[in-house]
Write a structure and sequence with these properties.
Blueprint: H1 27-49, E1 59-70, E2 87-97, E3 111-118, E4 133-139, H2 149-162, H3 167-186, H4 192-196, E5 210-211, E6 216-218, E7 221-229, H5 232-235, H6 250-261, E8 264-272, E9 296-303, H7 311-319, H8 337-356
Antiparallel strand pairs: 1-2, 1-9, 2-3, 3-4, 5-7, 6-7, 7-8, 8-9
Helix pairs in contact: 1-2, 1-8
The chain binds protoporphyrin IX containing FE (HEM).
Residues 34, 38, 54-57, 94, 96, 112, 114, 137-139, 144, 149, 152, 212-214, 322-323, 338, 341-342, 345-346, 349-350, 353 line the site of protoporphyrin IX containing FE.
Length: 371
């Protein structure tokens, strides 16, 4: 095998075949138990706060508006779905951390990024027919902590038991874990389990690269997606330690401080699958090798300077919107067990929030086309 990096023009993406997806007999049962467990988290936090937050990724740190521009002259295999034609669409963006509790930011946990493109064209996914949005829901990791929904259910049941149990304890636990995590990293391996329990390094969220983690259709092919900071001011924040002082919302403050002075630019990159063995669909824990298929740039995100988090935006984006990989084009149908079970889970969580906050979810349309 050659050590030369893959030339994007010579990439041979693998056409998707329905046999790449394998649905286990007990998936419906697992899916139901996942929804029940997530529902129990919603009930607990609603009882404590009197407000319905997302059952995971409850706390937002940046709520932003901007634009996505699809690049000119993309080769045909990259010019698919939402990226089929050059042009610009509006977007909303939500930065979050993964617990279902609203915790002090010193309990440092993995980060999420959800984006919603507003005004995409093309045939739609089931349940999303009336809309014109395309969501991408990402985390700052290249693969999921669990290979299958069933394995994830086990972890989620444990996490659900810790919901609202002593944030003070979680904070102390996290500080200890961070020490352990540094030790694990020093000997060459990162531990996703420790990170998801609160041992994530206390770094600036705007320096992170985010990944779809799990695959989706990319026209006739299948792919993962990443969003990478490219503005020099953003890149300077990668791995930068942030001192939160006594502020429980230190990440929010850091994001607000950044966007009061600067805009931001990210690239959207696509990793097309070229090999079903090395780039599987049903095992969400596999990092697809980038030497075989690198992430290639298809679009740019520009976000102007703006107030990055305030109560008005929290009403609009935290409470008024839901982001789901199942909001979008048929050309980007989510693939694999983890993606399949996300559909009912996200619908249940969004419905609960809409009902309990008296603010039904809506899918936005381009300005002037609101219905
Ligand atoms: C079986 C697997 C999964 C389940 C059951 C699940 C479930 C959920 C639920 C119920 C929500 C809240 C939705 C709402 O109230 O609007 C959510 C949000 C979120 N999930 Fe997942 N998820 C799963 C896998 C993943 C993966 C693989 C990623 C990473 C790519 C991810 C990233 C996120 C993010 C970033 C949010 C917050 C979205 C926002 O800002 O609105 N999840 N998830």
């Amino acid at each position: 095998m050659s050590d030369l990096p893959v030339n994007p023009a010579n990439l041979h993406p693998l056409p998707f075949q329905p046999s790449f997806e394998q649905i286990p007999d007990d998936e419906a049962q697992t899916s139901q138990e996942l929804a029940e467990t997530l529902h129990s988290i919603l009930e607990t936090t609603f009882k404590d706060n009197g407000h319905a937050h997302r059952s995971v990724h409850a706390k937002s740190h940046g709520l932003l508006y901007g634009h996505l521009t699809v690049l000119d002259n993309l080769p045909t295999h990259l010019a698919q779905g939402a990226f089929a034609k050059p042009g610009t669409v509006a977007l909303a963006l939500r930065l979050s951390t993964n617990p279902g509790d609203i915790l002090d930011d010193k309990v440092s946990t993995p980060r999420g990024l959800a984006i919603k493109l507003i005004g995409v064209e093309g045939p739609r996914l089931p349940g999303s027919e009336a809309d014109v949005t395309q969501d991408f829901v990402m985390q700052n990791a290249k693969a999921f902590t669990a290979p299958t929904p069933k394995a994830f259910l086990k972890t989620l049941k444990l996490l659900a038991k810790t919901t609202d149990k002593g944030p003070g304890l979680k904070k102390a636990f996290s500080a200890v874990l961070r020490g352990v995590e540094s030790a694990v990293e020093a000997v060459g391996g990162e531990s996703p389990t420790l990170k998801s329990l609160g041992g994530h390094p206390q770094t600036h969220i705007l320096g992170e690269t985010f990944y779809s983690v799990v695959p989706f259709l990319y026209g006739p092919y299948y792919a993962k997606l990443s969003v990478v900071p490219v503005a020099p001011e953003l890149k300077a924040l990668t791995d930068q330690h942030v001192d939160f002082g006594d502020n429980p919302d230190g990440l929010r403050a850091a994001v607000n401080a950044y966007f009061s002075a600067h805009g931001g630019t990210w690239e959207v990159r696509i990793q097309l699958a070229t090999d079903i063995e090395k780039m599987p669909i049903e095992d969400a824990s596999v990092i697809w090798p980038e030497d075989l298929s690198p992430y290639l740039t298809v679009a740019r995100i520009d976000v102007p300077a703006q107030p990055a988090w305030n109560a008005e935006k929290a009403r609009e984006i935290d409470d008024g919107l839901s982001f789901s990989p199942w909001h979008g084009l048929a050309a980007h149908r989510p693939l694999g067990g983890v993606m399949r079970v996300r559909k009912p889970a996200y619908e249940m969580s969004a419905r609960y929030r809409g009902t309990h906050n008296g603010c039904p979810m809506h899918e936005p349309r381009p300005k002037g086309q609101d219905v």
